[in-house]
Amino acid sequence: MLMISLINTAYAAESEISVHLSPYIVGYIGEVPITATLLTVWLTMGILVIMAVMVKSKLSLIPGKFQNFMELLLGGAFDYVANTLEDKKLASKYFPVIMTIFLFILIMNWVGLLPGVTSIGIYDSHHHLIPFFYPPATDLNITIAFAIVAFVVIEFAGIAALGAWRYGGKFINLSFLKKFDFNNVLAFFIGIIELISEIARLISFSFRLFGNIFAGKTLLLVVMTLATPYFLPVPLLAYELFVGFIQAFVFAILTLFFIKVAIEAPH
């Protein structure tokens, strides 16, 4: 019989350490599994919507301190994107996507550190706790989804800037068919390597985010499971807040830099 469970992390000291690579399945909608990480992503979406509504309600023609701060922060971020892309028109097109990726991953990582996440849930028939919420970046499905979004944006940027044929020429160089010499053959193989590295970004994007957050969550679990003073995890939690910010920043900034590379004309 399933029982609603509300436990704190101190309970872990009396049980074995349990690390799951596969996401916890809370239930199903038809045949579609609803996982704890997916519920946390939905919670993050709700938080972002509420934040957007609250910020919008505070906007005015005569800005206060909070609005001045937000305008300074966002203005600085936009200027950085514009300087990187060397085009304000392109910055206006891609800044919302890059900032959305940053904010989504940041809030998602921080929500995963809230009290109750991983400890509020239900017991299954084997008396194993199935939490309702779990850090989303510990689920490869979630990180791969973000990697696909970034990948599509990057490829779209390259095609929109150069055209499909010219952009594809970066990766498939057939100039050796016109003139067979060493340089053209070398250019063909370099293009193939570039194509492989382009596809490999899906792996690097997803595993970078997954690995850092999963490792941090496992470290916190180990520290809290051992018979350690309750104040010891506090600096680790502070460190994980910082890691959550860095991972969101790195993901967004790499997306920006790869967009920059994609829109550059082939030599």
Describe the structure in your own words:
This protein is mainly α and 267 residues long. The chain has one domain. Helices cover 64% and strands 7% of the residues. The protein has seven helices and five strands, in the order E-E-E-H-H-H-E-E-H-H-H-H. The strands form two sheets. Strands 1-4-5 form a three-stranded antiparallel β-sheet, with no helix packed on it. Helix 1 packs across helix 3 and helix 2 crosses helix 3. The N terminus is likely disordered.
Essential attributes:
three-stranded antiparallel β-sheet; single chain; 5 strands; disordered N terminus; 7 helices; 267 residues
What is the spatial order of strands in the main beta sheet? 1-4-5
Number of helices: 7
Helicity level, as a percent range? 55-70%
Can you count the beta strands?
5
Return the structural class. mainly alpha
The low-confidence runs, each spanning 5 or more residues with pLDDT under 50, are 1-15
Overall 3D form: globular
The biggest sheet amounts to: 3 strands, antiparallel
Number of domains: 1
Beta-strand percentage range? 5-15%
The H-and-E topology, N to C, reads as EEEHHHEEHHHH
Give the end-to-end Cα distance, rounded to a whole number of Å.
66 Å
Compute the gyration radius: what is it? 23 Å
Rounded mean pLDDT score = 79
